[in-house]
Amino acid sequence: MKIIITGAYAIGTHLARLLSRNQEEITIIDDDQERLDRIGADYDLLTLCGSASSVRTLREAGTENADLFIAVSPDENANINSCILAHALHARKTVAKVNDAEYVEDDVRQFYKDLGVDQLIYPEILAAKEIINGLKMSWVRQRWDVHGGALVMLAIKLRDNCQILNQPLKDLCGPDDPYHVVAIKRHQETIIPGGNDELRCLDLVYFMTMKQYIPYIRQITGKESYTDVHNVMFMGGGMTAVRTLQSLPEYMNAKIIEINPDRCEELNELIEDKTLVIEGDARDTNLLEDEGIKNTQAFVALTGNAETNILACLTAKRLGVRKTVADVENLDYASMAEELDIGTIINKKAIAASRIYQLMLDADVLNVTFLMSANADVAEFVAKDDSKVIKLPVKDLRLPQDVTIGGLVRNDKGMLVNGNTQIEAGDHVVVFCHGVNMKALEKYFNSPRKIEKIGRELLSRLSL
């Protein structure tokens, strides 16, 4: 697949890292040669110095043969303009990063799609959704819903009060049990478990279940003592915090601590009166105690500095807060934050990359999420008529190693999957992949006719 990325900034660099591991043909365009030199030295890709709004530059990059054109510079107008030009040059799919929620409204999104921008990505609003999902369930590190919650994936950190530790999974997750363990993160290792694997204290475990069994999962993992979140304290008043506060459930009360006095005035205009804006430094223990940290169930650190966010979350935990969320944009600090048991880690680059990664796939994929803690992907595929996946029971499909099917949704009803399950056309199938190019799974879910069509399109492009 030929992919062109414009903007060698944070998201563009992260995308290049993710996509280069899949051995795609990648060209990255930027008008700063120093940025290109840094990224070109680290990853296997081509670089081109020039303006992404220049037709000459786009042609030089081979945009007419691009399967995916991704514009992720800080300038949303330049991103949209370059996508429109790329569409006119016959790029197959285009995606632009934007910085304003207006662009993701349905009518505006359709307007730009008609102009040639297939997908608009607003990282801040995607991150806000992740944060709110985490706050709704204080005992869960990450939640991912499939088909409106018919299936639910829960990432849970196990402690010594967990009831299912040190027992083979084959004794815990039988065909009639209401959950499956689809992955385990243990220290720096991600495990796709078999029947003989066991869960250990401090494992981060990914459970697949149905919504009605969430209370049961909470019980067996020893999380019933976690109180629901009613009071939330935010540190940092950037746009991610604003979008989160604007979507916060009615039953949650929020305070936001911002160190910049001018930004405090802006926040008072941007957010509702029920949110108290406090000028100060949330790393100050005395300030946190004065503002009621003892009566706070969740602390969310969203400054632009990963170290500051991590330290603030550690301080909040020391003061008794059980649910902490940290924005860690520097991926070098992500594993450190995980080892320090920070809690939920938010990374806008990874969230945006998951949405863009979905556009790479020719199979019918409704949702893709990159699980940063596990360095893995989870996706919702739709099984097509006459596809390979519907012809044999799951145990006979010969799926790649480190791939597991966690469950499926049939006629809006969630079901867990075992070796004898027979997938049917139209099923929404949840696939968990670690260290595997997800494009390798397309042949299982596409019909032979679509695979032949893709092949013909590739041959046509090569002949040009």
Task: Kindly describe this structure.
The chain has 464 residues and is an alpha/beta fold. The protein folds into four domains: 120 residues, Rossmann fold; 94 residues, Alpha-Beta Plaits, CATH 3.30.70; 120 residues, NAD(P)-binding Rossmann-like Domain (Rossmann fold), CATH 3.40.50; 92 residues, Regulator of K+ conductance, C-terminal domain (Alpha-Beta Plaits). The chain contains 15 helices and 22 strands. The strands form four sheets. It has a six-stranded parallel sheet, with helices on both faces. Strand 7 and strand 8 form a beta hairpin. Helix 1 packs across helix 13, helix 6 crosses helix 8 and helix 6 packs across helix 13. The protein is globular. The mean pLDDT is 87.
Number of strands: 22
What composes the largest sheet? Answer: 6 strands, parallel
Q: What is the CA–CA distance across the termini? A: 15 Å
Helix content: 25-40%
Number of helices: 15
Determine Rg (CA atoms, Å).
Answer: 23 Å
Shape: globular
Strand order, largest beta sheet: 3-2-1-4-5-6
**Based on helices, strands and strand pairing, what is the structural class?**
alpha/beta
The CATH H-level homologous superfamily of the largest domain:
NAD(P)-binding Rossmann-like Domain
CATH topology call of the largest domain: Rossmann fold
User: What CATH first level of the largest domain would be assigned?
Assistant: Alpha Beta
